Amino acid sequence: MRERNRQGQQDRSRRGGRAAGKTPQAGRQPARPATQPRRDYEDDDDWGIEPGERDSLVDVPDGVRLQKVLAAAGVGSRRSCEELIGAGRVEVDGEIVRRFGARVDPDRQVIRVDGKRIPASADLVYLALNKPPGVVSAMSDDRGRRTISDLIGDRSERLFHVGRLDFDTEGLILLTNDGELAHRLAHPRYGVLKTYLAEVSGPVPKDLGRRLTTGVELEDGTVVADRFRVVDRAGSRVLVELTVHEGRKHVVRRMLAKAGHPVSRLVRTQVGPVNLGSLRPAATRRLTTAEVGDLYAAVGM
Length: 301
Ligand code: URA
Hints:
Blueprint: H1 2-16, E1 64-65, H2 66-72, H3 78-86, E2 90-92, E3 95-96, E4 103-104, E5 111-113, E6 116-117, E7 126-131, H4 148-152, E8 160-162, E9 170-176, H5 179-186, E10 194-201, H6 208-214, E11 216-218, E12 221-223, E13 227-234, E14 237-244, H7 251-258, E15 263-271, E16 274-275, E17 284-286, H8 289-298
Parallel strand pairs: 9-15
Antiparallel strand pairs: 1-4, 2-3, 2-5, 5-6, 7-9, 7-17, 8-9, 10-14, 10-15, 11-12, 13-14, 15-16
The protein binds uracil (URA).
């Protein structure tokens, strides 16, 4: 997948051709006295574009100017976004656009910078939550237990949680109203990696990692760990880190129990490219533009 993305980026910059490395300053920029204020963001603001090099993107009536969309999505200041556009690093629906005034629809069009998709729509929300133990991974609970919605409070958007953690498991849960992204992140087909820290009873034999990465038979089929390492040993308790691409119920607890090391505490520390980091229990944070771009890339969006 990574190789394919890299190839895609190379193809895209090749498609940018001669225009790709050229900045507005370097091209046929009309002479403009330094003291004269820039008439910024005009629709025909396509300095440096040779006739015939202009993209075929049709401006969206009442659309938003491309540099404004980029800046609002957190890519950078408007000035630095203009530089990215001028350098041929911005694509709209697969086409490099080097006009500052291009008007786009951030809710419908796919915009990429250096091949990485940006969260362009202002309506889309992407959050990381550190779920504490004793919270149900649901928006409501008919038994009256604490749920995710108790942690995120009243919000105008309808957020989906990406996958679930057990009632007693802690750690990272992603929340978004981007339905397609949420669906793909949770779908086994995309095999998004999830990393857990597990406190288990020790001592842990040397071959535990080999056994887990070779495959453990569970009642609903074999499960294979993608990575395993011992992080710390403290008396009879051992802290291990395990990465799986599985979303099956209780899968980490079941595989470690089957291997003879029942879990006493489980924390999810990473989902795909997103890290729990130092997020406090019960706290949420917005994902960065780069993190959202990496999530899109992880599921081929
Ligand atoms: N595996 C588990 O055993 N529990 C979780 O909550 C997640 C993965």
